[in-house]
Amino acid sequence: MNRDDLLDLFRRCSALLDGHFRLSSGLHSPGYLQCALVLQHPRHAATLGEALAEPLRELRPATVLSPALGGLIIGHEVARALGARAIFAEREDGVLRLRRGFTLTEAERVVVVEDVVTTGGSTRETMQVARAAGAQVLAAAAVVDRSNGVSSLDVPLHVLMSLSLPTYEPAVCPLCAQGAPLTKPGSRQVAVR
Ligand code: ZN
Fold first, then answer.
1. Ligand 1 center to residue 169 CA distance, Å?
2. Residues in a beta bridge with 144
3. 67 CA → ligand 1 middle, Å
4. Which of 21, 72, 81, 159 could cross-link with 32 by S-S, CB 3.0 to 4.6 Å?
5. Which domain CATH number covers 153?
6. Does the residue 141 lie in any domain?
């Protein structure tokens, strides 16, 4: 599955929109990505999971660990493709941890899988959860890397595609300057080119 196939899939699922968006950060952007709109289709989730599992297979991970909520579905699909276990970490009082009786054993071979890497912060935090439990983190993987290469991790990061969507302060937004209508993502459906 090459980059064009992926972009086409994302656009067909309205998971990648073109327009003029106000992001939750308050910044404006000509593009909006919502991975969940691809992963809502189990068939697509399985396809992406199989593709992401390929570079991880030779690492022979016993367990895929994902951060909730974004990493749940893709983590599960990657684990299915690898024949591994899928568990997740979730926040409790603002701290990411294993709950629900999930455990990792000493030196257990773990890969961290999520949907989108933005800054790498949640990836690092999830890796720390595994290491604190004594496991060894072999690699991280994500469907989309939006970090522009800044997500410096101390393990290899495997992604299906990197995507750089520009963001602007509203005062200097070129789309505002053109008078393009502003949309808050998720508030209504937007036509896709
Ligand atoms: Zn704008």
1. 8
2. 116, 161
3. 31
4. 21
5. 3.40.50.2020
6. yes
- The owner of tokens 């909520």 is 69
Residues 148-170 pLDDT 10s = 877 789 999 999 999 999 999 99
Domain count, the chain: 1
108-117, pLDDT tens digit by residue? 999 999 999 9
Q: What is the pTM of this model?
A: 0.90
- Residue 153 C-alpha to ligand 1 middle, in angstroms? 32
Q: Does 17 reside within a domain?
A: yes
Residue 191 in domain: no
b/e sequence 161-192, b meaning 16+ C-beta within 10 Å:
bebeeeebeeeebebeeeeeeebebeeeebee
Q: What is the 48 CA–ligand 1 centroid distance (Å)?
A: 32
Calculate how far, in angstroms, residue 167's C-alpha sits from the geometric centre of ligand 1: 9
Query: Which structural domain, as residue segments, surrounds residue 133?
Result: 3-177
Output the CA 58–ligand 1 centroid distance in Å: 45
